[in-house]
Amino acid sequence: MASLQLDQLAFGHRGRALTEAVTLEARSGEFWAVLGENGSGKSTLMATLAGLLPPLAGQVAVDGVNLGRMPRKVLARRLGLLLQHQDVAFPYSVRETVSAGRYAHRPPWRPLRREDHAAVERALEETGLLAFAELRADQVSGGEQRRVAIATLLAQEPGALLLDEPVNHLDVRHEVALMDRFREYADDGRLIMVSLHDVNLASQYADRLLMLYADGTWEAGKTAELLTEDRLEHLYGVPLKEVGSEETPFWVPLGHRKRNRR
Amino acid sequence: MGNALLAELLTGFAVGGMLAMAGVLMQVLLRTPLAEPYVLGVSGGAASAGLVCMLLGLGGWWISGFALVTSLFSLAVVFLVGGGDARVPRERLLLTGVVMAAGWSTVISFLLALESSASVHDMLYWLMGDLNRSISPWWGLIALGLALVAGWVMAPALDLLVRGDEQAAVLGVEVHRVRLVCYVLAAVLTALAVTLAGPIGFVGLVVPHLVRLRVGARHRILLPFSVLVGGIYLTGLNVIAGLPLLPASIPVGILSAIVGIPVFLYMLQRTRIGG
Which is nearest to B151 in space by CA: B209, B104, B220, B101? Predict the structure, then answer.
């Protein structure tokens, strides 16, 4: 189980911060969604939280320990990140690829132990990849490659899971199965933080939101409190209207013609 | 006679193993199966250093040491210009290496033009890759053994590194440290191989490719098999090169190129552009 503390965190590339400094705490058991337009800094934030990019200012701490001082292996046991892009240039099987998730759990000269194999099998099963396990990971479809990447993260079994657009390239069945699984992980006491471009997935699954506005401001808080028409228009630059029921609210963007009729 | 033959066989094995392992390491560093000491110009750098030493009358460790410096330099240029970033197209890495190789070959031509004596002939033979001049193979074999142990320990990290620096880092690999070790090992192996036998091309490309087809890509298995197959492959080529089929003896490097160039073109043709 892990918690993340962002203290006056400024993140971005080449010294240019993408938002105002962010201070918040994400605790184990919470399901966070990060929302924002393309280019608002969702991926950059994720990379900074995972220690791939140094903070421009302020700091990130995992369980109270500053990220910059943590060896990679220690960090990898506490926090994992699903990247948007994967690189597969060599003929590894799906199972071999997923097994890489166990790297941080053992010294490099030791082969996989029984618990490592068990974690890999569980990850393959949960992502529906058991039937593909012996195929070459570079020859399966785009959606399957995405699931291989997710399975690698599941095999890693970190306390906090950061997921950068996890449902891209997935069909609806796998999208729902995966989001359900992440919800269960959060209920089991892990911390989940997902960047999404689909506000309805966020409203359905997340209990906390971090909204990164295009003007560099941000807001964080409970989903129910932050999902308002005003805020979403500020976030996306187009009006969104709440439809559906009280129980399952649904947001639809209003196109040009509907806007004029309003 | 018996000793000379044994030395030649062992040199062939050591050089083949070193080139195959250097190939595997460069393929990890640049994340493409097309990387190889000769194609990337690293061997060319080492050969230029060797020639300079020969012209100055310096031998032995001078050649190895100077060859190591130019190998490190060549590989560093490929990284810095080609970029190790996952988003940089692999063609750029390869082209950087190819340009380096072209640069070194002009250096080599110039050095040869400076020398007018009969030793040019010896130098030309060495430049084509030649196991006959057999210096003691033992240092090469020892270095190869040590490098293999290091590579074997790092193998799981190498499996992650080929998936990109960011992916490797989030899974727990100290990327800069592992890359640095790979980089130094690849340069040392190339420099020693060139010192022993001149710049022999394509062993580091052909052997890992064939071994991957057989045993898969996992480095714990790929590395020892590549060293073993590389050693046997070059020794075998050398035996064929020595057969009295032609009036003149063919340097083993020529045979290696005859096999390697079609394999390289085949692999290149199967590579997705921008992939």
Answer: B220
